[in-house]
Please model this.
Amino acid sequence: MQELFDYITIQKHRTLEGYPNAKKISNADLLELECDFLCPCALENQITHENAPKLRCKYIVEGANGPTTPEADIILEKRGIAVLPDILCNAGGVTCSYFEWVQDRMALFWDLDKVNEELDKIMLRAYKAVQNTVDEKKISYRMGAYFVAVKRVADAIQLRGIYP
Model:
């Protein structure tokens, strides 16, 4: 591991491109490597109906926005590969933006420990709500996340009395 770090930092390479002690593989091959967790975190539409049958992971944790196509979602569900959806997994950035807004409105300044403490609470609560819905309704994580989100919006509308 130190050798990789030195290649990038000491030798001032910005990537592992050209690293002599590694085998180069394509992005497509990378997605199909055997693993427990596959985390597509950069681009949308990376998991498609073409590569979904070839994936060898137990879970997909979506860090990017929309990395899995609807067609691939169907294939993955049939194969028993759980997909933890982007609206749950990458909500931390939006949540931290909310924290910045709250701090600005109240003229408060949280340190990193406070931000992480509050973020942990919110993200864990969101995960538990989705997990409970998945378990109760026997649905996918994506559908569980959608169910929780729609219910929260409906509850807020009713509470505020916006619609009779």
